[in-house]
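Support request from a user on the community tier.

User writes: "When I paste my structure tokens into the form, the page sometimes reloads and wipes my input. The last time it worked, I copied everything first. Here is what I submitted, just in case something in the input itself triggers the reload:"
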């Protein structure tokens, strides 16, 4: 798999972009001399220059600094949601696919959650519990769990009918051992690919929630909040919207390239071409 990924230029490009963004987010205090939340009325609405690479917003805050610190929020939300939804969705999918008496209950719950548009469900949860980074992560995780659970359930249902699994069941092997040794390893490949798409979707959904004012508090720098701040001035200062939107688009594209590379490398039909 590693050899395929290294020879896949698109995947390497996606990984390089994400690593560069992670580096910029971690070392944000050293890459910009400005406090992303510091208000400076004397420098409000400055155009891009050597002092302020991306200009300043209506409160005089440096957009470049806010972009660097905003990367922390977007990437953190994407990665944490991908991990949490994968763990919970994997558990629900394994239980639903292997134990038939759990299938109806779990899948009906997943169907009910998927029947509500993800943005509306997240906004409703945010309205109930209030806006913060933790509640945003929880709300988006709840939205993404059904997609992971249904994927894992489908894989488990197909594996459960294989001869070696039926032989293990007939031999009286405990259910937990069958799931751990025979079923779980076969779910890892599609789960890893799905996790990359969940990460990208979570970053986009977080930006949407922040843009409409239902996500992270406006005082916290995030790409969605930066776009929301520039919404009223987009004709005068389009850079306040286009720069964070471009960064978000590049990040999502890079993650999708990584997902496509993992999908191709983990597909036996593609592995033969390496």
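"...and here is what came back when it finally went through:"
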């Amino acid at each position: 798999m590693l050899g395929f990924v290294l020879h896949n230029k698109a995947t390497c490009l996606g990984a390089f972009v994400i690593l560069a963004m992670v580096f910029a987010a971690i070392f944000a205090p050293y890459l910009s001399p400005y406090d992303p939340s510091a208000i400076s009325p004397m420098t409000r609405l400055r155009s891009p220059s050597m002092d302020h690479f991306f200009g300043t917003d209506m409160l005089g805050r440096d957009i470049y600094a806010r972009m660097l610190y905003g990367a922390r929020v977007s990437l953190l939300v994407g990665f944490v949601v991908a991990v949490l939804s994968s763990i919970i969705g994997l558990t629900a999918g394994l239980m639903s696919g292997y134990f038939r008496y759990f299938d109806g209950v779990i899948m009906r719950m997943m169907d009910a959650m998927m029947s509500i548009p993800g943005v509306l469900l997240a906004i409703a949860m945010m309205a109930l519990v209030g806006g913060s980074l933790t509640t945003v992560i929880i709300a988006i995780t709840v939205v993404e769990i059904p997609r992971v659970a249904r994927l894992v359930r489908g894989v488990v249902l197909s594996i459960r009918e294989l001869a070696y699994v039926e032989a293990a069941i007939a031999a009286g092997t405990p259910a937990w051992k069958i799931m751990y040794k025979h079923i779980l390893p076969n779910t890892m490949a599609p789960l890893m690919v799905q996790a990359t798409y969940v990460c990208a979707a979570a970053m986009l959904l977080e930006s949407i929630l922040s843009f409409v004012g239902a996500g992270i508090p406006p005082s916290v720098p995030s790409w969605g909040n930066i776009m929301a701040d520039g919404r009223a001035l987009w004709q005068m200062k389009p850079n306040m919207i286009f720069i964070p939107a471009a960064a978000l688009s590049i990040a999502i594209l890079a993650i999708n390239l990584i997902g496509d590379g993992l999908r191709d490398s983990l597909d036996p039909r593609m592995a033969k071409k390496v």
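Agent notes: The reload is a front-end session timeout and is unrelated to the input. The mean pLDDT is 85. The chain has one domain: 2-271. Escalated to web team.
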